[in-house]
Design brief:
A hairpin with a 5-residue loop joins strand 4 and strand 5. Among the domains are: about 5-65 and about 680-715; about 330-445, Immunoglobulin-like (Sandwich); about 475-560, no CATH class. The strands form nine sheets. It has a five-stranded antiparallel sheet, with helices on one face. Strands 3-4-5 form a three-stranded antiparallel sheet. The protein contains 15 helices and 25 strands. The chain is elongated and about 155 Å long. Helix 1 (about 5-30) runs antiparallel to helix 15 (about 680-715), helix 2 (about 65-95) packs antiparallel against helix 4 and helix 6 (about 285-320) packs antiparallel against helix 14. By secondary structure, it is α+β, with helices and mostly antiparallel strands. It is about 45% helix and about 20% strand.
């Protein structure tokens, strides 16, 4: 080997080890830098025309393990998702309180019903009446407040989703920009490791918001997509957009999160605009979407059903009893019914007009099964027809000069003349019934509790009844899968003449929703939509309803409470009827006594506590709750069902807490394994530094030896 070759070999070794020492020092300096991947100097033999010419640096390699990188991103997404859900569950726990607290929902219900029950001891006590109404107001206020707070949380989530979308757009743009810079650096033969570290940090931020799949390219670029292959960043990138709601409510149908492909050089959008929600399966964004569109609406539906059941039971007692003196006018709610609708009432009831002192002025006894009525024990008179209008006409005829009845805009009004009062009494053996409720109860004439929606959606209509909606009117439905993602949108156009026709249209598997849902009209006129086999947990929502029933103005879905919205709204705006809230003496604690039943006889007494005793039964009576939200069908008292809601909510929170703990443990384990590969080990780096220093010294000695050889040759000359 020539002296020149020795110098070349030594000089190349000197340069290589000098660079290796610099890389090692850089590794040591970044031992605690997040996202930093250690570097190693890859070397290769250098030859010139087949003759060894020392060593050269082939690459300053960034040490990463593709498997652990992918697993770490996935674990990061899962961790962020469950932590987002857990934080919302913690917030829910704080507003609901513990089940054993007096301020919790079960505690409020128990207190209100207990106060009503206490009235049976002394119905004449003004203090106890006022206390009972006050406790009822606290209970109804708790229902309304909880419902509003849930919608408030949904609003906050919606804004967080919008903020995450803005962040993602910025991060996608950064990845694309870094891709271009890295490609250029590699083409020019530079070292892009620092840029790749920066890009990895950005990708980790993305993974915390939504789960992504990475695809390294030979050019040095890194393409991003969702787990199911929806491209996010590649040769092109997507720009996400989402318009948050000013305020979420029970009627709000969330807008989709959409993605538009963008040309990098011009920023021009390339059609089509595609929904992205269904492609997001992890990350904070998925957790927020699950809570906003799944867990929270389910919880609001459960509270709404409970509120409706409590209101319905209390209203049943209030409507079958009377205050003393009886109110002069009773105004019902809009039931959606019109005069031409079939009466569908069976059984017997009595409408009485009483004087201020509780004496009977007149009574009209109805037997709907027989189709007759009688005034003050007189001869039976035919009602004259089978419609609601015929019943109202019979009431007017029976009342005569003592009062009147009218049906306007779906609401029944009954009033007494001459300062007298009106009240109703169900027959004890064969009570009047439409959808299981007496006349006064069904129309809500003497209700104790009111809310944004009625306490029941059992309409009492039959399938053959005319639906009363104008053909051509439309309803926009949305079906969501169990985690809240949109499965299908569908617009129904009203056709046919009867309710059966509408149900058949909706059940059509081709032109309707029959592939997803099974619609049926029950014996009490309740319209239900149950998921078909294979679609368990799917929910029906109403995006908009442009129908209006002729004569009442009630929309189709509003009449039947179809969709999750109306159940939620059963708790919203819940309150004691203002007539009673302003005057606790209007509590119906007495019951008509028609055992004598002749005009002038005393039929209402201020000391009568039979109404109060019936209120006492509400506290323990079991209610058959239909499946709602996350809960299945149950038979329980109102207080027990409230406790069931809290218990289920606690169970869900515990499950999320467990999943969160597992995801944190997994994330930490995978991150540790990843760091074992790409992280800096101080002992290893110090050992390498010693090796490179010794190699550097060895190369320096070779140069010294070569110089000595030259010197010897020169002396020989």
């Amino acid at each position: 080997m020539s002296i020149g070759a020795i110098l070349n070999n030594a000089f190349s070794a000197l340069q290589l080890n000098q660079e290796a020492l610099r890389v090692t020092s850089n590794n040591v300096a970044n031992v605690n830098t997040p996202g930093y991947a250690r570097r190693v100097v890859e070397q290769e033999a250098s030859t010139v025309q087949g003759i060894s010419n020392g060593v050269a640096i082939s690459e300053i390699k960034r040490i990463v393990d593709g498997f652990f990188v992918r697993e770490a991103l996935s674990a990061r997404s899962g961790r962020a998702q469950f932590q987002a859900q857990l934080s919302i569950h913690d917030r829910l726990q704080s507003i609901f309180g513990a089940p054993d607290q007096n301020t919790s929902l079960p505690g409020q219900i128990d207190r209100a019903l207990a106060s009503l029950a206490d009235l049976s001891v002394d119905v004449t006590s003004a203090v106890q009446r006022t206390s009972a109404v006050s406790d009822l107001q606290l209970m109804t206020g708790a229902f309304s407040s909880l419902s509003d707070q849930i919608q408030g949380i949904r609003t906050d989530i919606d804004r967080s989703i919008a903020a995450n979308v803005t962040t993602l757009n910025s991060l996608f743009e950064q990845v694309q920009s870094l891709n271009a810079t890295i490609e250029r650096e590699l083409v020019l033969g530079g070292n892009a490791a620092a840029l790749q570290d920066q890009r990895s940090t950005v990708v980790e931020e993305i993974a915390s918001i939504m789960d992504v799949k990475t695809s390294p390219q030979p050019s040095g670029s890194l393409y991003l997509s969702t787990q199911d292959g929806f491209s996010l960043v590649g040769a092109l990138r997507v720009e996400l957009s989402y318009a948050p709601q000013n305020a979420m409510s029970a009627s709000t149908v969330s807008l989709p999160l959409v993605a538009t492909t963008i040309t990098p050089s011009t920023g021009t959008a390339i059609p089509p605009i595609l929904p992205l929600d269904a492609h997001i399966t992890g990350g904070e964004l998925r957790g927020l979407l699950n809570m906003r569109d799944g867990t929270l609406p389910e919880l609001a539906s459960e509270i709404g059903q409970l509120a409706g059941a409590v209101a319905d039971r209390l209203n049943a007692v209030q409507n079958d009893n009377s205050a003393v003196p009886a109110p002069s006018v009773l105004v019902g709610r809009n039931t959606g019914l019109v005069a031409a609708d079939s009466s569908n009432f069976t059984g017997q009831m009595t409408l009485a007009v009483t004087a201020a002192d509780g004496s009977l002025v007149s009574q009209i006894a109805f037997d709907f099964t027989a189709g007759i009525y009688a005034v003050d024990g007189g001869a039976p008179i035919a009602i004259g027809g089978s419609t609601i209008g015929d019943v109202v006409a019979a009431m007017n005829a029976g009342l005569g000069a003592n009062g009147s009845a009218s049906l306007t805009g779906g609401a029944l009004t009954v009033q007494a003349a001459g300062g007298n009062g009106v009240s109703f009494l169900q027959d004890s053996a064969n009570p009047s019934s439409r959808a299981g409720r007496g006349v006064s109860h069904f129309f809500g004439l003497n209700d104790l509790i009111e809310a944004q929606r009625p306490s029941t959606f059992e309409t009492g209509v039959s399938g053959a009844d005319a639906h009363g909606f104008t053909p051509g009117q439309t309803i926009d439905f949305v079906i969501r899968n169990p985690d809240g993602r949109e499965a299908i949108q569908y617009t129904y156009t009203v056709a046919g003449a009867s309710f059966d026709d509408i149900v058949a249209d909706l059940n059509n598997p081709v032109t309707g929703l029959g592939s997803f849902m099974s619609f049926s009209l029950g014996a009490n006129g309740e319209l239900t939509a149950a998921p078909q086999s294979g679609f368990g947990g799917f929910q029906l929502q109403v995006a908009s309803d442009g129908t209006a029933r002729t004569g009442s103005g009630v929309a189709f879905t509003e009449m039947f409470g179809l969709g999750t919205r109306y159940q939620m709204e059963q708790a919203q705006g819940m309150a004691v009827v203002s007539r009673i809230a302003n005057n606790p003496d209007q509590l119906a604690l007495a019951k008509l006594d028609l055992s004598i039943g002749t005009p002038g006889s005393l039929v209402l007494s201020s000391g009568d506590n039979r109404g109060a005793l019936e209120f006492d039964l509400v506290r323990s009576a079991a209610v058959n709750f239909a499946p709602s939200g996350h809960l299945g069908a149950a038979s329980a008292s109102p207080e027990e069902y409230a406790a069931l809601i809290l218990a289920d909510m606690g169970t869900q929170a515990a499950q999320i807490d467990s999943l969160s703990a597992d995801s944190i443990a997994l994330s930490e384990e995978v991150e540790q394994r990843k760091q074992e590969v790409q992280g800096v080990n101080m002992d290893e780096e110090l050992a390498n530094m010693m090796v490179f220093q010794q190699s550097y010294n060895a190369a320096a000695r070779m140069i010294t030896a070569a110089r000595e050889l030259y010197d010897t040759l020169l002396r020989m000359v």
